[in-house]
Specification:
It holds the Pfam family NTP_transf_3. Helices cover about 35% and strands about 20% of the residues. With about 300 residues, the chain is α/β, with parallel strands linked by helices. Helix 1 runs antiparallel to helix 2 and helix 7 packs across helix 8.
């Protein structure tokens, strides 16, 4: 029999249904093994297609003021990090390497400086009046089929994105358990700026900057995945918190660690989901990423890249 490659799910399903009509369970054990394999291929193909539908939302609206003169005339994500590539270009290139090609960028500060081709842009024109959570929801229409969101000012390895992709849970966050080591020489970025997570029984039960670090087991690395179901949970609860007249988070009141929901981070929304009883799962990583918040961070990331360690 000639070998045939099938890349279309409908073709695979058609073959599978045709063989089922034969009554394959009455045939040889070897034949049954082939049918079982075909069933698994169909399931895996469907799961893979769901992943391929996912968009990646990169939040790039902020000013990056801690880098001072470096970002006076250029948004931080556009700073060169490796061989003429900017931070965000390197991030997009890494995403392509794991098969994530549908890229969304939310821009704000000096938005006209962004000219990366083959991406979809959304605008946060009031970026000085809000924060990362509202920036993310500028691209709400891109969330429908599930999505990965990531900060634009970090450098990640391919392995980190692959781990996030492979995670089966509806809502999961990348977490660095060995976070303290990174802060040993990071004196321009204090540990009380770290977004720390507390983990119990493979679930995140708390996420905060304002916490006892000894009681928290890792740092959120700025990458999160929401399946289609997870995205629906996020969107519904965000609008309830943002718009419901009966909600305790009225405009001007604190929203978890934030002074208000308009000034909230993604981590504040994750904490809201935790308190509402939704399971949030960690995806543990071991280094392979650098957040670039200061000149010191920038030089550290460049050094790791030059040494081939990132």
């Amino acid at each position: 029999m000639p070998k045939q490659k099938y890349s279309n799910l409908e073709e695979i399903k058609e073959i599978y249904q045709s063989v089922k009509k034969i009554g394959y369970k009455k045939t040889s054990e070897k034949f049954n093994e082939h049918i079982s394999l075909l069933e698994r291929i169909v399931k895996r193909y469907e799961e893979n297609m769901d992943v391929k539908k996912m968009k990646v939302i990169i939040i790039a609206a902020g000013m990056g003021s801690r880098l001072k003169d470096m970002t006076k005339y250029l948004p931080k994500p556009l700073l060169e990090i490796e061989n003429g590539k900017s931070i965000i270009e390197r991030e997009i290139e890494t995403l392509h390497e794991v098969g994530l090609d549908d890229i969304v960028i939310i821009r704000g500060y000096q938005k006209d400086k962004f000219s990366i081709p083959n991406v979809t842009y959304y605008e946060n024109d009031v970026y000085t009046e809000n924060n990362i959570l509202e920036s993310l929801f500028c691209a709400e229409e891109a969330m429908e089929d599930g999505f990965i969101c990531t900060y634009a000012d970090s450098v990640f390895s391919k392995e980190i994105f692959q781990r996030i992709l492979n995670a089966p849970e509806d809502i999961c966050l990348g977490v660095e358990p060995n976070w303290r080591k990174r802060y040993e020489k990071r004196n321009e970025h204090p540990t009380d700026e770290a977004e720390l997570v507390k983990i119990e029984e493979d679930k995140i039960v708390s996420i905060s900057k304002f916490c006892n670090p000894d009681a928290y087991g890792g740092e959120f690395i700025g990458v999160a995945k929401f399946t289609k179901k997870g995205a629906e949970i996020l969107r519904r609860n965000y609008h309830r918190a943002r718009e419901s007249k009966s909600c305790r988070f009225a405009e001007g009141q604190r929203f978890h660690d934030a002074v208000s929901i308009r000034k909230a981070y993604i981590t504040d929304m994750i904490q809201e989901l935790i308190e509402r009883g939704y399971p949030i799962h960690p995806v543990m990583v071991n280094h392979g990423w650098v957040e670039i918040d200061t000149q010191q961070d920038y030089e550290y990331a460049q050094n790791l890249i030059k040494k081939g360690e990132l």
